[in-house]
Amino acid sequence: MTFAQSLTAAARLTEATLDGILSERSISGEAPEPQAGRLIAAMRHAVFGGGKRVRPLLVIESAALFGLPPQDAAHTAAALELVHCYSLAHDDLPAMDNDELRRGQPTVWKAYDEWTAILAGDGLLTLAFEVLGRAETHSDPAVRVALISALARASGAAGMVGGQALDLMADKRGDPASPTIDYIRRLQAMKTGALLVFACEAGAILGRATDAERRALADFGTALGFAFQIADDLLDAEGDAATVGKAVAKDAAANKATLVSLMGIQKARAMLVETEATANAALNIFGSRADILREAARFVVDRKS
Prior knowledge:
This protein is an all-alpha fold.
């Protein structure tokens, strides 16, 4: 399949899996009270808002390197997407990024209210680990434990949550007063990159890869995460809200330090090209079998939303 076909197929499989996971009866075991139904509706609003499902694609395609069909990676991909969508629901809150628009639609707190958005995010996060613990995720309990451990680290204080804390410290408290490029790279590797690294490593865990193969996929994910954030900063600097699907030019308006603000647009674009090359080089061990992952890197670099 082409990359576009692979992305579409991965999105459809992941969304079908998520639809089952996020059904009222699946979550509650019985018909929920109206109040609980509202919470589940908010959780579904966070998940089914039109995301591209790049992270699930990375899980599915990295698992395919080791002979696993897409269905065997679907629950892991869905669990990762639950964590990703929880993070967006919380990031959009007034106390954090204060965004009213996400993927061209009202954010969860705007569509419902703040406390519902907080609880919806909490529900998605905890549900993700329940999904990873299920037998349908993988028949081997040791593999399931490895997935849970890796996703917990990637999404917690050592990963995404820690990166968000660093970002907000700099944004809201001015600490550090003058962030350096190295500081921003570390922040972004935690905030954005950690989940992308997990997406790539998850396929290696599911496929019981060698240490060298797992390291190669982790290196690819690290470079891909950096490329993703550079592209995101460039979209904020140059994009328009109608195309991007969320507010733009917020970083400049807030005088926020980003790679683009510190390096300038041309140097940031040059670094984006270099980072894509680094990502692709990490996949050499897999030869042409990793071509869809290489196309994923190109997609990240070229994205317009």
